[in-house]
């Protein structure tokens, strides 16, 4: 018994060590956003300061890159959110010829190596002489997000009670009214979760964007380009703010979910 | 009429998204295959010539990187199972009411950009950086000691970046185990170790399989970790493909290599699925 207790304790300490390992680089990123460094090199601790939060938008290219990333993520969230939800609804609700093929294509898109997707899409754009830039990034992000949204919405649709829709129809509601007043509100949590996933995937994407960006620079691409000359503290601050926003959304989401149950 | 409409509804729902996936996911694969069989150059244009040389040359010139990628992918996946399984086990069985808090902590890295996370490690592990510098100053490590630019740094970086994808499915599988099954094992006089080996472990395997599916592909095809944490002796096939596409712009070779990578990964997944029984993997994939 005593030995079992010890073993449980050991595993607990081990779990916390792994969590610490996962969190260390994030902590370092946040900390060096407060570093009172003078040059562009943000490598040695020079003292605590808030000044980079004030100078957040002083590097024009970097700000533009962040704006691009946010715009692309919002567009991806909307387009992939709608298109993916429609697929998820069809797969979760209807039995039809072709549903197996659709499932296979989506599984392939989810499990395909990013570099292969990015390279093949670039091959298409090069062959058709499509100019690379903002819109080719949006196209690529919607492409890899649709399946994730569809899978999320499909899972939600499958748990729904169909009798509610039948009841609406029995009470005289047409197809569209039933969808708007009954189906949509019920699947909405899935649609929202899927769309937020699309936003998160888009804003973080590096590999596929790297292939299809042309001269347009997103936040991850800007950081990538700056690695050799040194990462300015503004990047740490922006990373910190994105991280904080993510934590806030996740915590708010958990609180809402807890209140519902 | 309304029956026809009902029959067509799923197709109407699928059409826009399906078209997007067809044009920008399926067609590009075919275009890439075609491009890999063409010859020519960016200046002169390309012609389709069944130029299998791109494959032969690609394999001849870059087999080191291909083999290294597979090895690093396997090593990092194994490392993730070793690191992640005890964590998944502890959270599933001892996490109590705070399970979701632990899972949230495990997912925290995903709220920071992949590139930024990796660069943060580069900073931490740099030759005279905040970790190695002090250890060298007090003489615990020799001056020439380095972590960056070694295979270890790349494999550890890959394991770091994809660990949550490994832990989550393992956790889900372990969480599902009915505690009564464990009680039954003990009632039948199985020791703790035997219970673990013959009950918990087999029941957790679907989760491990799913985790491997989710981490092996991105780890093997990654080039960010090898670029940021590695050196000239640790380049992976992803680095080569990226360089050939975006710098050299030798599209036939680049697409041939890219196709080779995809084929290897597909064969790997297929063999893996067959070895384990297709149903398990498909069931896991369907989730």
TrEMBL record, chain A:
* Keywords annotated in UniProt: Cell membrane, Membrane, Transmembrane, Transmembrane helix, Transport
Q: Name one Pfam family in it.
A: BPD_transp_1
Q: Name one GO biological process term.
A: transmembrane transport
Query: What are the residue boundaries of the ABC transmembrane type-1 domain, all occurrences included?
Result: 66-253
Transmembrane ranges? 12-34, 70-92, 104-126, 132-153, 181-203, 237-256
A cellular-component GO term for this protein: plasma membrane
Membrane topology field: Multi-pass membrane protein
| Subcellular location as annotated | Cell membrane
What is the official name of this protein in its record? ABC transporter permease
Tagged with keyword Ion transport: no
Does Transmembrane helix show up as a keyword for this record?
yes
Instruction: Cite the InterPro entries for this sequence.
Output: Bact_Polyamine_Transport, MetI-like, MetI-like_sf
Question: Matching SUPFAM superfamilies, A to Z?
Answer: MetI-like (SSF161098)
Family from the record: Belongs to the binding-protein-dependent transport system permease family. CysTW subfamily.
Protein species of origin: Microbispora bryophytorum
UniProtKB/TrEMBL annotation, chain B:
**ABC transmembrane type-1 domain ranges (all copies):** 66-272
- Subcellular localization: Cell membrane
Matching Gene3D superfamilies: MetI-like
**Would you tell me the Gene Ontology cellular component terms?**
plasma membrane
**Bilayer topology:** Multi-pass membrane protein
TM ranges are 12-35, 70-91, 103-124, 144-174, 195-217, 254-273
Family in the record: Belongs to the binding-protein-dependent transport system permease family. CysTW subfamily.
Q: What is this protein called?
A: ABC transporter permease
């Amino acid at each position: 018994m005593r030995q079992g207790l010890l073993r449980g304790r050991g595993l607990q300490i081990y779990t916390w060590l792994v969590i610490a390992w996962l969190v260390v680089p994030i902590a370092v990123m946040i900390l060096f956003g407060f570093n009172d460094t003078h040059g562009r090199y943000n490598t040695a601790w020079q003292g605590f300061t808030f000044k980079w939060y004030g100078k957040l938008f002083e590097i024009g290219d970097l700000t533009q890159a962040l704006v691009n990333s946010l715009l692309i993520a919002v567009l991806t969230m909307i387009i992939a959110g709608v298109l993916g939800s429609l697929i998820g609804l069809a797969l979760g609700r209807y039995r039809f010829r072709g549903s197996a093929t659709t499932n296979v294509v989506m599984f392939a898109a989810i499990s395909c190596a990013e570099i292969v997707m990015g390279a093949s899409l670039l091959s298409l754009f090069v062959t058709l002489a499509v100019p690379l830039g903002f819109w080719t990034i949006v196209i690529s992000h919607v492409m890899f997000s649709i399946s994730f949204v569809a899978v999320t919405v499909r899972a939600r649709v499958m748990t729904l009670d169909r009798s509610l829709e039948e009841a609406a129809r029995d009470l005289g509601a047409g197809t569209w009214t039933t969808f708007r007043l009954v189906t949509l509100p019920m699947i909405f949590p899935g649609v929202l979760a899927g769309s937020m996933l699309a936003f998160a995937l888009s804003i973080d994407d590096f590999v596929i964007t790297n292939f299809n960006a042309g001269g347009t620079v997103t936040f991850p691409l800007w950081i990538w380009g700056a690695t050799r000359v040194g990462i300015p503290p503004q990047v740490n601050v922006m990373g910190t703010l994105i991280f904080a926003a993510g934590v806030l959304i996740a915590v708010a989401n958990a609180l809402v979910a807890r209140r519902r149950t | 009429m309304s029956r026809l409409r009902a029959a067509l509804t799923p197709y109407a729902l699928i059409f826009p998204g399906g078209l997007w996936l067809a044009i920008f996911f399926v067609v590009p694969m075919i275009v890439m295959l075609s491009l890999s069989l063409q010859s020519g150059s960016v200046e002169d244009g390309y012609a389709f010539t069944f130029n299998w040389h791109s494959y032969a040359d690609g394999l001849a010139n870059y087999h080191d990187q291909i083999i290294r990628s597979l090895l690093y992918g396997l090593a990092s996946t194994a490392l993730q199972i070793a690191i992640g399984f005890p964590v998944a086990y502890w959270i599933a069985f001892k996490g109590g009411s705070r399970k979701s808090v632990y899972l949230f902590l495990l997912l925290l890295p995903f709220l920071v950009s992949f590139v930024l996370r990796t660069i943060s490690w580069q900073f931490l592990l740099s030759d005279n950086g905040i970790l190695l510098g002090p250890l060298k100053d007090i003489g615990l490590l020799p001056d020439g000691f380095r972590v960056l630019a070694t295979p270890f740094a790349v494999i550890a970086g890959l394991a770091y970046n994809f660990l949550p994808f490994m832990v989550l499915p393992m956790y889900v599988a372990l969480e599902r185990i009915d505690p009564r099954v464990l009680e039954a094992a003990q009632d039948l006089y199985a020791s703790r170790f035997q219970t673990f080996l013959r009950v918990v472990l087999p029941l957790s395997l679907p989760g491990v399989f799913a985790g491997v599916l989710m981490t092996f592909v991105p780890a093997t095809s990654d080039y960010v970790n090898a670029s940021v944490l590695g050196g000239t002796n640790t380049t992976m096939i992803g680095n080569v493909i990226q360089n050939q596409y975006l710098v050299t712009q030798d599209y036939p070779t680049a697409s041939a290599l890219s196709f080779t990578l995809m084929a290897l990964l597909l064969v790997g997944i297929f063999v893996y699925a067959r070895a384990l029984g297709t149903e398990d993997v498909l069931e896991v994939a369907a989730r």
